[in-house]
Specification:
mainly alpha, 2 helices, about 0% strand
Amino acid sequence: MFRRREPVPFAFLAEADRFRSNVTPPKPERASAGQIAARWLLGLTIVAALVGSLVLGMPALSTNTSTPTQQSQASQGH
């Protein structure tokens, strides 16, 4: 039922996991309007960069089948 602990050189280390503080940590500060606006601006910039790279990169990724393929003269036997 109870596990026996190994002896530790410092007794307070063995008892540290049983210690509970009655002091509550302070609440985190709320972000100001400028910080929220900066976060939104950064997020929009990142999204715009990703969309822009996708828009600029799509023509390079698509294959154009309407133009005939060019063959070198060496492959034609000239």
